[in-house]
Each structure stands twice: as structure tokens, then as C-alpha cells.
Amino acid sequence: MDKLKLVMIGNGMAGVRTLEELLRIAPDLYDITVFGAEPHPNYNRILLSPVLAGEQTLDEIVLNPLAWYARHGITLHLGQAVTKIDRIRRTVTAADGSTAAYDRLLIATGSQPFVPPVPGADLDGVLSYRDIADTQAMIEAARTHRHAVVIGGGLLGLEAANGLALRGMAVTVVHLGEWLLNRQLDPTAGALLEASLRQRGLDFALGAQTAALQGDARGRVRAVRLQDGRELPADLVVMAAGIVPHTALAEQAGLLCQRGIVVNDTLQTVTDPRIYAVGECAAHRGVAYGLVAPLFEQARVCATHLAQFGIGRYRGSQTHTQLKVTGIHLFSAGDFMGGEGTEAILLSDPAGGLYKKLVLQGDRLVGVCLYGDTADGPWYFELLREGRALGPLRDRLMFGQRACQGAAPAQAPTWREAA
Predict the structure, then answer these.
(1) Which residue ranges does the record assign to the NADH-rubredoxin oxidoreductase C-terminal domain (predicted)?
(2) What is the reported pTM?
(3) What are the chain's domains?
């Protein structure tokens, strides 16, 4: 009996994790073809920052070498972006004209950097930070240039800034928010982070907006001009102002896209049940996730349905934040800002670089923000995600899991008990 044909567009972490799960539970169901736009096998994109910082090499972050694809009989097209999906003929066509027929199609095209529409964004020396090519270009620029400006004080921007500083560049981060990681930290933790990074030689323009990038006679960027009139010298500008789901191909194929390719709880597209989507390109219940844990949760569910087991539902994910900068430890999850109907338990030691904030609503933990000591972050996240009643843990909660041993919280009621 002929195998079914599975084609995957995209060769990143979410898509390949789906294939790993599928091969584990249904190794002989499909002939698999993969198209990857980059000329590299699957690698750990979240470790690009340590590569930029000189702490790891590109070879060390490869997750699935070429031998893995060969071992599983996967036909791999590297450096070939798919340009067309024909849903009637059930084929895909790549940039080099090669085609592949499918019975099931998995779209895992990820996301692309958001580049603010400012004058000068097309100058030489202006880069985004998304893949191996961007990382290599930044490493090369650091060898021959002195001044860098990173636009965006989020996770990716700070990791880029730290890496460039470690390679000897003078780096200024321009951030629209009033404090760093303003979507992941509260103002107190953001201020502690800023102080730590300034000690490493980074500079910051907070609450600042980029007006234009200015070039020299050769067409290379030389400065960043802010809305308030300040000019920052810049031989290199890194755009790290966010990401947007890569949906152009899906839109051309007529798939419904709203903040990503719209999928249901089985990760099937709502437009075409033969087509699935996972990862940063997918929008589930109105949310497109940009962190790796939700993408792997999607992969597990999607694989069960590709395997025709008909089990598993993806209900959405709770997420937490960590920064990949050596020596800086922070963790946040849930409603860490708090608000009406909540109360916060605080421990603050600015001189020691320590800050803990636990946000409670009734008898449950709903938010956590840690800086300096994050050892209990995963435990707090488990309490938050499972919605457990704290009970006798409440008085000891600030002191972490070890202090709470022997005073186990009551489990959340089951649905039968709740009924």
C-alpha cells in the first residue's frame, strides 16, 4: 500500500518537532517532504544569542543534522522557499520550480521581523535579527565597526545588544517603553535590569522613538535620529521591534489569516482540513505565540492528528519569560502587574539585586515577577498554571518551594466536584 504524502513548508523548531512526534507514533504512515527557506538543517533559533555573544558556535545549535533527515527517509529541499500552494491539485511549488504533491500539508513558516517604517531602513548596515544569516552579518559588522544601535528593548533586542557589546561595540538600545521589557517585567524589575546592563557597558534611550536613519555618502547608515532631535552614532542598526506571523503564502492560497493562519484545537486550518499550521505563523483562538514552549505543545497535538489517532486538543498555553544573557536571571509569568481584585506580596533588595513579586487573587497565584533569584520560577509557574488553591502555603510562598514542603496546597477541584 502506498504511503500518504506529507509536505511541510518551513524547517524550523515547531515544524520539525511535529515531525519528531509523528515519526515516534506513526513512523511508516507518510512519505515526507520538507522545504526550508534557509540553507541549514533545523537549528535552535533561541540559541542564536549565545552564538552572537561568542558563547556557542553555529554547529553546536543544530538540532537535526542532515543525517537525521536521511535516516527517516525525508526528502529535504534546503534554501528553497515555497512560492505557491495549489489547493485544488494539492501541490506546492518552490522558487526553483520543484514541486511536491501532498495528502496532508503542514505550514510552519514561522514569523518575520517587524521593521518600523522609518526613513533610511533600507540603508546598508541595517539588519533584523531572526536567523543564522542575520547573526553572521552582525558578527562580521562587529569586527570592523564601532557603534551599534538596537531598536527595541524587548528580549531579542537586549540579547542582541549584549552580544554586540561582548564583541567590542558601543551599543545603545532605543526603546519606546518607559522601562526595559515593559511587557515582561514591572517597573521595579525593569530598573534593576537596566542597572545590570549599564554595568556591562550598554546605554539606553528609554521612552524614545526613532524618527529616521541617516546614511553617509556610500549609502551606509551613520546615525539614528530620534523624535526628540537627538542623534546617536550608528555604523550598525539592528531592528528588534517585534515579529509578525509569516502568512503571505497562506493568504495567497486563500487560507483565513487573522493575526496568523487561523487554526482550530487540532491545529487544522479552519479553511482546509487537509492543511495544518503550527508555530509562530499559526493563530489559535486569536493568539499567535512567539515562545518555544507553546509551539512544542502545538506540535504534540498536531502530530496525533496527522497520525490519524484523532486524539489531543490544544487549548492554548500559559507562557513565562526568561532572558538569555549570561549572569542575569529574571522570570515572569501571568498577571505580574496586578490590578483590581489582586494583592501583591513583595520582597525587594535593590542593593543585592534581588526582587520578588507574587500576585494573588483570592487564594490563588495569578502572577509572578522575579529578578536575581529565579530558582523557584518553574514551581511558581506550576502553581499558577494549575490554578491550585494555596491554603497553608500562602504565608510561606515568598520563600519558595523548599520552605513550603510539608504544607502542600489543596488541589483544584475536579470538574465533577465543581459540578
Answers:
(1) 321-387
(2) 0.91
(3) 4-112+243-306 (3.50.50.60), 126-239 (3.50.50.60), 329-413 (3.30.390.30)
